[in-house]
């Protein structure tokens, strides 16, 4: 299935899972990010900065998405049009 997804479809699924992450995926993601962080920190060079498990998470509900003022304006216009049409 993954080999047949286009890049845009994969991106849409990734955005969906950032919003509606299944609990099992959250647990798996947290466990794997801890393991990857331990592996990275044990094998990094002495002058490289250590990284935390949060740096390796795929699904992070507290991730702040930076938006430009134009993107915020377009989002508000979209919400307004949905409200007017309902």
Structure description:
The protein is built from three helices and no strands. It is an all-alpha fold and 86 residues long. The protein has one domain. The radius of gyration is 18 Å and the shape is elongated. The model has no long low-confidence stretch (mean pLDDT 83).
Write the layout of secondary structure elements.
Elements: H1 7-19, H2 23-43, H3 69-85
Radius of gyration: 18 Å
Largest sheet: none
- Overall mean pLDDT stands at 83
Poorly predicted ranges: none
- How much β-strand is present in the residues? under 5%
Q: Give the % helix.
A: 55-70%
Q: How many strands appear in the DSSP assignment?
A: 0
- Tell me the quaternary state: single chain
What is the H-and-E element order?
A: HHH
End-to-end C-alpha gap: 36 Å
Number of domains: 1
Short description:
This protein has one domain. It contains 3 helices and no strands.
Structure keywords:
86 residues; single chain; 0% strand; elongated; mainly alpha
């Amino acid at each position: 299935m993954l080999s047949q997804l286009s890049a845009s479809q994969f991106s849409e699924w990734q955005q969906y899972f950032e919003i509606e992450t299944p609990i099992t995926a959250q647990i798996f993601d947290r466990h794997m990010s801890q393991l990857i962080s331990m592996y990275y920190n044990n094998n990094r060079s002495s002058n490289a900065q250590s990284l935390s498990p949060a740096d390796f998470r795929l699904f992070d509900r507290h991730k702040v998405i930076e938006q430009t003022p134009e993107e915020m304006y377009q989002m508000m216009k979209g919400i307004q049009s949905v409200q007017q049409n309902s």
